[in-house]
Design brief:
The chain is an all-alpha fold. Helix content is 69%, strand content 0%. The protein is built from 24 helices and no strands. Helix 6 runs antiparallel to helix 13, helix 8 packs antiparallel against helix 9 and helix 17 packs parallel to helix 20. The longest helix has 34 residues. The radius of gyration is 24 Å and the shape is globular.
Amino acid sequence: MILLKKIQLPLFIALLLIPFQLFAAEAGGGHEPMDMTSSSIGYIALILFMIAYVFVMAEEFTHLRKSKPVILAAGLIWGMIGWVYMDHGMSELAEHAVRHNLLEYAELMLFLLVAMTYINGMEERQVFDALRSWLIRKGFSFRQLFWLTGVLAFFISPIADNLTTALLMCAVVLAVGGTNTRFVSIACINIVVAANAGGAFSPFGDITTLMVWQKGMVDFWGFFALFIPSVVNFIVPAAIMHFAIPNENPAVSDEVVPMKRGAKRIIALFLMTIITAVSFHNFLGLPPVIGMLTGLSYLQFLGYYLKKTKHKCISHEQFSDKNEVGEFVVFDVFKPVAKAEWDTLFFFYGVVLCVGGLGFLGYLSMASELMYTQWGATSANIAVGVLSAIVDNIPVMFAVLTMNPEMSTGQWLLVTMTAGVGGSLLSIGSAAGVALMGQARGQYTFFGHLKWAPAIAVGYAASIGTHMWINSALF
C-alpha cells in the first residue's frame, strides 16, 4: 500500500507515452488476444486495479463508496485495451471480450436485484423487526442467545444474503446485550462466521455460490454436499467461544412488533421465485435470472392486490401499515427496488470488468498456471480462501471462474466453500463483518475479531478436512 502511494505522476505519464510497438505482441492471425503481461499497458492496468482496491479496503476511513474507484479503474483498463487493439486493427476482438464480461455481469446483477427487492420488501413489511422483537421477549440467557443467533444466522443466510442476516442478528444482540461489550463482541464474531458458513452450501447464500451455479460448474443440488462441512465451520469456533460468554440473563423487553399485511405472502412468493429460477435452469435450460425476473412479477401483482384492497388494512387495527405520523402506507414494489444495495451492484460491475480486463491481458492465465498447475488444485483452492480474508471474495471467485481450471466437482465445491468461509478469518474479510463493525461500533472491532482468528482458523481447517473426507467420491 505504501509503495503504491509513492508512484510518481511523471513516471505514470511516461509509461502511457511509450509507443505501443515496443510492448504489444503481434496477434496470432488476428484470432487470439495478445499477451500483454510484460507490457507497460499490462503493468499500468495492474497498478490501476491495486490502487482502486486500496480505496475499496479503506472505505471505512475515507467514506468513499467502494463502487467509485473500481468503476473508474474498469473504464481506464478497457480504454487502454481498446486503444491497443484499435491500433492493431483488432478492435472487434476487444469489443467481443468486453461484451462477454458485460453479459455475465448483467445476469448476476439482475438476479441479485430481484433477491434484494424481496428482502427489502420483507423488511418494509416488518418481517425482520417482528422476528427481532420475538427473540428479545423470550428472555434467553446470554449463552442461549449466542447459540440461537448463530443458528438462525446459519439457516437464514442460505435464503437471504449473509449481510442482511448478520445485520438482523446483530440488532438482536445489541438490543439485549446493551453495554456488555464482551458478549456483544463474541456474539458478533459468531454471527459473522455463521452467516458466511450458512451461505456456502446454498446457490443463493452468497454472490460467490451464485456465480459458480450460474456458470454451470456445480448443479443446484450439488451445493448441498457442503452442508456438513459448513456446519463444522460454524460449530467448531462457536464451541470454543461458548466458554467466554457470560453466564448471565439480560433484562427482558416486552416490545411487540407486528408484521404488516402481506408479509407472509411475500415470504411465500420469494420461495416460489427461487423454485421458478431453479426450474427454469434445471428443466428448461434457461439462465436462472429469467426465472428470478419472472418471480419479480409475482411481487408486483401482490403489490397491486394490496393497493386495491387497502380498505381491509384500514378496517383491521392489527395491521400496522402506517408510518411514524400515522399516515397509511401502500406497499409499492418499486420502493424496495430503489432501496437495493446499488453501491454493491455497481461495485460488482467494476470488479467483473477489471478482472475481465486483467484476464484479457493474460494475467489470469499466468496465475492459473502458477496456482493450479504448479501448486495443485487443493493447495490453490485453500489459498483462495485465505486470500478472501483480505480481498473481497467476489473478485477472487470471478478470477477463478475466468481462469476456468480443469477441476473435479469436489474441487469446485472446495473453492466455493473456502471463498465463502475464508472471509470469516478477519472482520474485513466479508461484507457481514464490515457492516457489523459499523453497527456495533466500539464493541465489535477488528482486533476483537482478530483475537479469535485462531479458533476460526481451526474451524476453517476442520471444514476443509470434513469436505475432503465425506465428499471424497466427488474428487
